[in-house]
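Protein GrpE, pasting as requested.
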Amino acid sequence: MPTRDNGHDEPVIRDNRKIDPETGQARERPQDQETPVPPAPTEVAAQDGDLLAQLSERTSDLQRLQAEYTNYRRRVERDRVAVREQAVASALQELLPVLDDIGRARDHGELTGGFAKVAESLEAAVTKLGLNSFGQKGDPFDPTVHEALMHSYSPDVTEPTAVEVLQPGYRMGDRVLRPARVAVAEPEDAPPASDDDN
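Structure tokens follow.
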């Protein structure tokens, strides 16, 4: 502890107790110490207003961040589903020629024995993944899902109709993976296309 002998002052200790421990009497406050003045009501109201404004701003920030995070989660989930669907569609599209071969073998009576079981298993698996075939003889021609490979006129139809399915179409959900390739017949009374345009 420093002493006066080496030129340093001893530490100063102030007794700020309101009651004198020796006499038990209340001490008087020194004149140099001022009693803190409580803030005026207008200052309190201004401080409360500032705090409320800050609270409102922070609450708004948190709500905005929560909405952004919710939107982000939805986007990620939607993108994840879209990527999965795209991957499944790509894999199924690669299997379409195999399904065509199975269909031709079935049409020619060559789908027998163990090969028939394998074909049935494959068809069940792709159906479970959402692949559906479409295109039947007699369907009205729809250029969004049919590809016309042959064209003719017939008295048996009243509108453009698929009279023969050359290759079935496939879709996964609403997405067309391959249009049905068909022969189309139109009513005979349809006016022929004019070649006299030159």
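Note for the archive: The chain is about 40% helix and 20% strand.
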